[in-house]
Design brief:
single chain; globular
Length: 196
Amino acid sequence: MFNHSLYFYIINAFILYYIHSQAKEFYNKRQLSGKTVPKIYDLGHKILPNLSTNNTLKDGLILTPYILLFILSLIYGKEFMLKNSFYFLIIFIIRWFTSSITILPKDKNCDDTKYTIKNLLFGNCYEKIFSGPFSNMLILSFIILHYNTNYNNYLIIINIIYGLLLLMTRLNYSIDIIISVIVVYSITTLVPYKAI
């Protein structure tokens, strides 16, 4: 399992870099020729406060699902980690396609001038269409419910707060959150987990 994961993350690094560089080149050319709209209308961004300059909060939000995955794997065991890895892999693959197909404008506070290891861990300015962090949090929630349904109401509240924070920090558009719910629910419902 470890070797497969390592290969996956190496391939993922190359694909994410390629997506970032292609999106940046395309968007910058369009911006120079006056063919971009500097801002798209987003209801969540319009009504929620803007916390996009709080980089510590942004980094913490992105790391949260991974920290929870580590802690919950210690509690629930190897099978919990494997289930999450299985669904995370499917989400990553779908996100590769969606990030390549449609390029939405980046937030004005997102720096796309360099590509570092932080971009591999936290994403880049153009990874839109559906939220990776929110998808990861939802996958964790669905699998937790598999082990213990008593947490249903708590998980709903936690996910709503998490989604609102992602919107306030401008890490995602509202549509990213909605699509995440649809994709993750569909995948965790329709694609059965097979022990690896």
